[in-house]
Amino acid sequence: MSGRSRRPWARAAPPPGTRWPSEPSRGRRPWPLRGRRLKPSLSVRTLAAQVFLFQALIMLMLVAVGAAALVVQGRYDAEHSAMDRSLAVAESFAHAPGTAVALRSPDASALLQPQAEQVRKGSGVDFVTVLDRHGVRVTDPDPALIGTKAQGVGRAAAGETFTETFHGRPADAVRAVVPVNDPSRRVVGMVTAGIEYANVGEVLNRQLPLLLGAAAGALVLAMGGAALVSRRLLRQTHGLGPVQMTRMYEHHDAVLHAVREGVLIVGGDGRVLLANDEARRLLDLPEDADRRQVPELGLGPVPTRLLVAGEAVSDEVVPVGDRLLAVNVRPTAPYGGGQGLVATFRDTTELRALSGQAEVARGRLSFLYEAGVRIGTTLDVRRTAEELTEVAVPRMADVVSVELLDAVLRGEEPTGAVHAMRRTAVRAVRAGHPLQPVGDVIRFVMADTPMVAALRRGKAVLVPDLGTAQDWRAQDPEGAQAALRYGIHSMVSVPLRARGVVLGMVNFWRGAGSPRFEEEDVAVAEELVARAAVAIDNARRYSREHAMAVTLQRNLLPLGLPEQDVLEIASRYLPAQSGVGGDWFDVIPLPGFRVALVVGDIVGHGMQAAVTMGRLRTAVLNFSSLDLAPDELLGRLDEMVTRLDTQSADADDDRVPLTGATCLYVVYDPVGGHCTLSRAGHLAPAVVDPEGGVSFPDLPLAPPLGVGGHPFEAGELDLPEGSRLVLFTDGLIENRGRDIDEGIEMLCSTVARTDRTPEETCRALVERMLPEHPSDDVALLVARTRLLNPSCVAAWDVPFDVTAVPRVRGEVTRRLADWGLEEVSFTTELILSELLTNAIRYGAPPVRVRLLLGRTLVCEVSDGSNTSPRLRQAATTDEGGRGLFLVSQFADMWGTRYVTRGKVIWAEQSLDRAAEPDPAVLFDVMGL
C-alpha cells in the first residue's frame, strides 16, 4: 500500500470532566454575559462601550488571524515532518544490505514482506512498500496490492530520490520514493514509505485544542484588559457618548469662560491648575498664572490666606485691589477629584450699598416679627405694656415709656378724655433715667408739645433733635433739662390706638451713643405700637369680661357661710387663669340642726358656665328646702337637668348644657355624728379622723347629672367629733404637671395634720397644691364636725293612744324647766299637742317625740305614716282643721320630712324671743 494506513493514529483522550472547545458549558452563560460588572458599559451609546467594542473586534481579528496562521504553520510542519520521516524510513530500508540481494531473488516478496512490515511498525509510518525496477509492488501492508503497479514512481526508476504529497489510489499520502541500487549502481528496485494524508492531519488535530485554547486565553486576556480600560473610561466619562462628551466640553468651556463669576482651581501642591477669564480679570492674574504657586500671584494677604489654608469658606467678602469680592472655597476631594480646592469670586462692590440697605430692612422685619411674638403673651394690660418696652429697648430706643388711660387699666371702655394718662411701664438701657416713674399721672395740657400733637393728629410725631426743639420743653422745663443732661437727644411720640380709639401714648427716646431717629424709624415705631395696641385692647376687653364673669360667679356663690353650730366650716373658690368656670359649693342648714354640704362642677368655662352654675345651685337650694334624702335629691336634680337640656336643644340656643355636671351632696346630723352622702360623677370626699388618719370612703358612684338611666344611691358614715370632711373639685388635685394619684397623695399629706383649723387647712391646700394661676377653677370645703350634747336631746316613745298626749306633754314641760326654758313652755305644749294629736289620729305607729336644744328649740313628732299634713283655712262651721295653722303661728318654721319608715313633722322656735301670733287672726280661726 502506498497511499493509506490501516491503523489510524491514536487520538489523545481528554481528561475526565474536560469539555471540548466545541461543547459549551451546560448551565452557564457565555463569558461576556457573566461579566455583570461590565453591564453599564455594554450600551453602545457610551464612549466606553464603543471603545470596548472596537478593542474587542481588533482583538478578535488578531486572535483569529494568529490562530489561522498557527493552523497553517502546523499543517505545513506536519507535512514536512511526515516527508522527512518517510524519507528516512525509505532510505534506511533501500540502503539496507539485503534489500538489493532480495530483489534479485526469485521470491523477493517472501523475503522482504516480513522485513517491510517490521520496519513499518517500528518506524510509525503508514506504509513501507518495495517495488521492482518496473514499479510493481513486491511488498505492501495490504497483501492484495502485491503484484500491482504503483503510480508516479518513474523518477525513482531513473535513479532519483524524491518526496511528495501523493494524490491517487489507494490513498492520498505524504511519501518518499528511494531507488535501490546494486553494487554497480544500477536501479534494481524502489522503496516507498509514507504517511496517509488523513493521518498527517491527525497530528494537527492533536495540536489544535492546545492551539485554540491558547488563542482563547489570549482573547480572554485581551477582552479583560479592554473591559478594565473601558470600565475606567466609563467611570471617567460618566457613561457619556462621544457626541455628549463633545457637547459637555463645549458647554463646560462656554460656562467656564462666559460666566460672570471667577473660577480658580488649585491643586494639592498649591499650584494653579485652571483660571477662567473672569477670575483673571477680577484677580488681575498674570498671563503665566497656570502652574504657579498661589503666593506668587500677588493677590493680597486675605485671599492668599483663604486659598492656601484650603478650608471651606462661604460668601466671605474680601478686598482685592479696588474691588470687594465674595469668595467661596470648597475642597475638591469629596467630589471625586484629587487634593485641591475650587474657589469662586463674585464682584460685590456695587451691591455692597444695596445689601446694607436690605440688611437694615431685614433687621426691621425681624424686629417686628419678634415683637409680634413677644407682645401679648398674657391677657394682662400692664404686663403687655411692659412687654412693649422690653422689646423696644435697646433695639429700637434707649428709653421707652408707655402711658395708658385709667379706664383702660380698669378694663373699661376708654372715653374721649385723653389729656391725663397713667404711666404704666418705663424701661431704659441704664439706670437713673429722668422720666417720671410708673404710677404717676401724665397730663397733656400744653397744645404745642409733640405728645399733644400726636394725640390730635392720630399719628406719630418725630423730634429728631431735642436740643434745638423748644415746644417739647413747654410743659415741664425742669424735666426737659434733666432729660438733656441724661443724654436724651431724639424722640418719637406715637399714640396708642385700637379700633379708632386712643388707649394711651408710647414715647421712644434715644440717648448718647445712639443715632437720632429718622423717618424710617417712625414707620417701624408706628407698626410696633399698632401691634401692641391690639394686644392691649384684647387684654382690656378680656379683663372687663373676666371681671364681669368673676363678679357674676361670686354673686352666685354663697356670699357668706350660714350660721350653724354643728360644723366649723372654711371654704375657697379660685377661678381659673383662662376664666371663671362652673365649680361651686354651698352650705345649707336643714331642720333638726342638720347641715347639707354641696360641691359641684359644671363643664366648661366663662360667663355661660357661671350662669349654668347659678341655675344648678338654685335648684339644689330649692330641693333642699323639701328636706329630701341625698340620693332622692340627686335623682330629682338629674331629672331637672335632663328636662332643661332637652328644652335647650329644642330651642336651638348656644347655652352651655347642664349634662355632664357633677355633684356631691352630704347631710350631716350632729345627733350621733351620722353622715349621709350621695354623688353624681364626683370625687369622693376625704375624711380625716381626729388622730389625723385620712381615708376616702367607698361611696356608690352614679353617672354625672343628665346622663340618666342609673339610680342614685347613698352611703352612710358615722363620724366622731373632731373629724374633718374635705370636699373638693378635680381642679385641686389635677393639673398639667401631675396626675390624679400624685395629687391625692399631696392632699392626704396636707390634711393629715390635726393641729390645723379648717381655715388653716384650706390655706395650706391652696398654697401647696395650686399654682399661682391654676388652669382649672377650684371649689373647696373643709368642715370639722361637732356633736350635739346628749343632755340637749330628749326623746319619748308615745303609745298610739290619744290619752297618752297629756302625759307626754307634762314630761316635755318638766324637761323644758330643766333646760330653763319656762318662757317657751306654753308655746311648746301647744305645738306638741297639735302635732302629737294629728300623728295619733291620722298617722300610724310607732309615734315618737324628740326635743333638740341648740341655738333654737326643735320639736319633732314622727310616726309610721307617709301621709303629709296640709295647712288649710278652716271654715267657721268646721270642728277641726285649725291645728297646723296654730303651729305655723307659734313656730318660727315648721315642715315635714320623710324618713325610711314614715315621716317627721318638726317645728322650730327661737329662744331669744317668743312667737307672738296675731290675736285677731287666732280669734278668727277659732271662730270667736
From TrEMBL:
Enzyme class at the top of the EC tree: hydrolase
Molecular function in Gene Ontology: ATP binding; kinase activity; metal ion binding; protein serine/threonine phosphatase activity
Membrane topology: Multi-pass membrane protein
Keyword Transmembrane helix listed: yes
Phosphoprotein is among the record's keywords: yes
Signal peptide: none
Name of this protein: protein-serine/threonine phosphatase
